[in-house]
Write a structure and sequence with these properties.
Helix content: 25-40%
Number of helices: 6
Strand content: 15-25%
Strand order of the largest sheet: 2-1-3-4-9-8
Distance between the termini: 14 Å
Oligomer: single chain
Structural class: alpha/beta
């Protein structure tokens, strides 16, 4: 079973959900803000995917489920269950691994170039991809690389974009799941404004999305295929 953790309704699994429909595992989606509970027993869980949200990992008084998820991820790390954390999910994974999460020097919103490090070029999850990727970002926080972790990718504005932890854990600051519809809904939710600059930024973001969407979907599916190979390695 693949457990997909949502933290807010507007940030769903997108491409990830579509990908795993065609794979041999049951998919169980949990939306913590709506009261869904994380499993107490990890038996039968083949992988965990933790999605994004505008909230911060340290807002546990406002969002008590973040502390519950922290304990859940720590347990999954100990049991070496494959984990993929995206945006907030990557920050939660980093925190569960003992690393600091803090405000980034600069927010990243929209399309950015990502460069793989020497380690990233050799890593399983980036096999079959270019050394430079176009990725979608929407975050104001960033994580430090955990002890025994490795930096896999960086962008111009935010150095720490991807890391592995142990044999099975991966944190991606960037989004691999977004669809055109999701980006449009995020713009309506987060950038809806009469400010001319924001309107221009939103229009530019949408144009880039339409231009890059086919390539981005292929790229995302390749990463997810590589992640599924990691899951299969653990199953067999």
């Amino acid at each position: 079973m693949i457990v997909i953790i949502k933290h807010i309704s507007i940030e769903g699994p997108g491409i990830i959900g579509e990908f795993f429909k065609n794979m041999p595992w049951e998919v169980k989606g949990l939306e913590l803000a709506k009261g869904d509970r994380l499993p107490q027993d990890l038996c039968g869980i083949n992988a965990i995917i933790s999605l994004g949200s505008p909230m911060s990992v340290y807002e546990k008084e406002k969002y008590p489920f973040l502390e519950v998820e922290d304990k859940f991820l720590k347990k999954a790390i100990k049991e070496e269950i494959p984990i993929l954390g995206i945006c907030l999910g990557s920050q939660l994974l980093a925190k569960a691994c003992g690393a600091k999460v803090k405000k980034a020097k600069q927010e990243e919103v929209g399309w950015h170039k990502l460069s793989l490090t020497v380690d990233g070029k050799k890593d399983l999850l980036f096999q079959g991809l270019s050394n430079q990727l176009n990725v979608f970002e929407w975050h104001r926080d960033t994580f430090e690389i955990p002890n025994n972790g490795t930096l896999l990718a960086s962008s111009h504005h935010c150095r720490n974009q991807a890391f592995p932890y142990g044999r099975n854990g991966y944190g991606f600051q960037f989004h691999v799941e977004v669809t055109t519809d999701m980006i449009e809904s995020w713009i309506d939710e987060y950038l809806n404004s009469d400010d001319e600059t924001k309107i221009t930024d939103a229009e530019k973001m949408l144009m880039e999305t339409y231009e890059k969407k086919d390539q981005f979907v292929r790229q995302a599916n390749r990463i997810l295929l590589n992640f599924s190979r990691l899951i299969l390695r653990e199953v067999f």
